[in-house]
Amino acid sequence: MKFHKEGYTSLALVVLFIFVINAVANYFDANQVVQWILYIISAFLFITIVQFFRSPNKSIQLDDNVVLCPADGKVVVIEEAVETEYFNDKRIQVSVFMSPVNVHVNRNPISGIVSYFKYHPGKFLVAWHPKSSTENERTTVVVKKNNGVEVLFRQIAGALARRIVWYVEENQTVQQGEEFGFIKFGSRVDLFLPLGTKVEVNIDDKVVGGKTVIARF
To answer: What residues contact 43, with CB distance under 8 A and at least 6 apart?
Structure first.
């Protein structure tokens, strides 16, 4: 287990805030009850930041015949849907909702070359809202396998997530299971798979990024 690099600034701000409020309380000689309340709040804030930005070490089992889950969370959508940004045809959509308690590292579901990337500024609807896929702040990534099959995956900001981070660009070669981005706080990742792909998960399944097999080609 390690602390993710995207959390360094947040951790520094929280530590500074904890130091300041406790220093002020001590300076004004606050009574013991107030001091203990501040200690509890300080511990809660510190633990929350540390657990949110935790990044477990994972051993990825590469398999060119499967689509690995891109994020920790819960499966909230499995349906056929028309993807209108890149494919403009019907695909199998699988969506994973990431709550604030989940690990928020995003991982490549397949290996290949990034054939398309775009960042979209937008709204901050709750991540499970049907329109969040098309109206929220988001990124869209398409990776093409060696055999020409393409998979689209989309980072979607939620009501609390105000920063999407990505580490990929067009024409970059990526490996299955490697980090491609990070989303701060509650959010969602959508996958758009070719029709005929065999989905291996069900609605409400708890899934693990880089471990759970979402589908097989």
So the answer is: none
Query: Of 95, 111, 133, 187, which residue is the catalytic one?
Result: 187
pLDDT at residue 28 is higher than 90: no
C-alpha radius of gyration, the chain, whole number: 20
Angle of CA points 94, 100, 104, to nearest 5°: 60
Predicted pLDDT at 199: 97
Express the helix, strand and coil content of the chain in percent, nearest 5 each: 20, 40, 40
DSSP labels for 79-134?
Answer: EEEEETTTT-EEEEEEEEEE-TTS--EEE-SS-EEEEEEEEE--B---TTSTTHHH
- Which numeric CATH code is attached to 66-216? 2.70.70.10
Per the prediction, the chain carries an average pLDDT of: 87
CA distance readout (Å), 44 to 10, 51, 74, 183: 14, 11, 25, 21
Q: Among candidates 136, 153, 217, which has minimal Cα distance to 189?
A: 153
Q: pTM for the full model?
A: 0.81
CA angle 119, 143, 63 (to 5 degrees): 135
**What is d(CA 73, CA 108) in angstroms, rounded to the nearest whole number?**
15
Cβ burial, residue 20 (10 Å; 0-12/13-18/19+): exposed
Specify whether 55 is catalytic: no
CB-based contacts of 106: which residues, under 8 Å, 6+ apart? 70, 71, 155, 179, 180, 181, 182, 183, 189, 209
